[in-house]
């Protein structure tokens, strides 16, 4: 027991004992000691009752007044209650200050922030940007369902995904269709979700300008490069007996530039598409046979090439685009695998979907480079890529082709042991292989 409380208890007990002793003395003098002691006890109880009532009234009324300065246990209790009330008020003020700061920060954000009830998907709170970007109004939309408040945005199916809902990268604002939004749903507690809406109109415009620029420049470069390459082919090395290497290097560089332009045009075309333009069954038996021939031609007998068909299925999509993606992965595996290494192309099942993976025993890729491999022109080793004739666009093309087919590219690698590039297709892209299925010839 703390020292002040122990001292207050001793003082109170001493006071009660003194009152009882005094009552006993007075009662003895009057000849009624029992009555005097009873009256004294009632007075002590009445005093304690009165002090208890004062404490209860203070607690109920939440009064702010200075505590008693006496030394009894009730005075000590009064001081403790006063201190606790003062500390609680201070904590409340700090919490209110923090809450106001957080709300002010959320209100100042340029992104729309909406707090949703996780079960009912009703709007609990939103900032000013949510009014500008999403059209939510206070107090009209507080307590309303988000889907009803954001008509005509198609959000019902997206919200049903909950924690697994993928961000919506581009959707028109209900306030102004010219405003393009990026929506993200973040579960941040057991009862609430956070909806973040970001204005990406300017970013999309800049991205479109970049795409148009690349497409236009690539298109304009194609004709002069074709002319230069044609004239170089007409030149005879015997006409330049002193510098035959110069003519060969010019041809090599013009061919490399032509490949770069073609890859840029292909990438620009893929980026402008929303989905694959061709949707038809793709027979994987001739596709794998074509990949084997291309790998062997590129390898020139320097590698051990294996093609394994473990799935027994076909895919649905664009034969030309899928062949371009798979061929890029196979040619990269051969290009970056030293002579004597192994390249394995395997088609296998994965749950209800399918995976085409290309495995090699090449140099491997450091882990810090893996997240950026699909960026255009990104190179792990610039010198080795240029020596091998790569353009730095192959994996970017693969990523876009797979995205158009609802598939994804997974990359695993370990330095000194090789790499695995896997194309994962969901069940919607898988078809049972028919024995007499008409084959699609890939050019």
Gist of the model:
The chain has 443 residues and is of the alpha+beta class. It has twelve helices and 13 strands.
SSE diagram, text form:
Layout: H1 3-30, H2 33-61, H3 73-108, E1 112-117, E2 123-126, H4 128-134, H5 146-149, H6 156-160, E3 168-172, E4 180-187, E5 192-199, H7 201-234, H8 244-272, E6 280-282, H9 284-299, E7 304-309, E8 313-317, H10 319-335, E9 342-350, E10 353-360, H11 382-388, H12 394-404, E11 408-414, E12 418-425, E13 430-432
Parallel strand pairs: 7-9
Antiparallel strand pairs: 1-2, 1-5, 3-4, 4-5, 6-8, 8-13, 9-10, 10-12, 11-12
Helix pairs in contact: 1-2, 1-3, 7-8, 8-12, 9-10, 10-12
General description of the model:
With 443 residues, this protein is of the alpha+beta class. The protein is built from twelve helices and 13 strands. The chain has helices at residues 3-30, 33-61, 73-108, 128-134, 146-149, 156-160, 201-234, 244-272, 284-299, 319-335, 382-388, 394-404, and strands at residues 112-117, 123-126, 168-172, 180-187, 192-199, 280-282, 304-309, 313-317, 342-350, 353-360, 408-414, 418-425, 430-432. The strands form three sheets. It has a five-stranded antiparallel β-sheet with strand order 2-1-5-4-3. A five-stranded mixed β-sheet has the order 7-9-10-12-11, covered by helices on one side. A three-stranded antiparallel β-sheet has the order 6-8-13. Helix 7 (201-234) runs antiparallel to helix 8. The protein is elongated. Mean pLDDT is 79; it is low at 437-443.
Structural class: alpha+beta
CATH class of the largest domain: Alpha Beta
Query: Could you describe the largest sheet, including whether it forms a barrel?
Result: 5 strands, antiparallel
Spatial strand order of the main sheet: 2-1-5-4-3
Low-confidence stretches: 437-443
Strands, total number:
13
Query: Strand-and-helix sequence, N→C?
Result: HHHEEHHHEEEHHEHEEHEEHHEEE
CATH-defined superfamily of the largest domain: Histidine kinase-like ATPase, C-terminal domain
Radius of gyration (Å): 40 Å
Task: Tell me roughly what share of residues is in helical segments.
Answer: 40-55%
The dominant shape is elongated
Examine the secondary-structure arrangement and name the CATH architecture of the largest domain.
2-Layer Sandwich
**CATH-defined fold name of the largest domain:** Heat Shock Protein 90
> Whole-number average pLDDT?
79
Q: Beta-sheet strand percentage? A: 15-25%
What's the end-to-end separation, in Å?
91 Å
Any idea how many domains? 4
Number of helices: 12
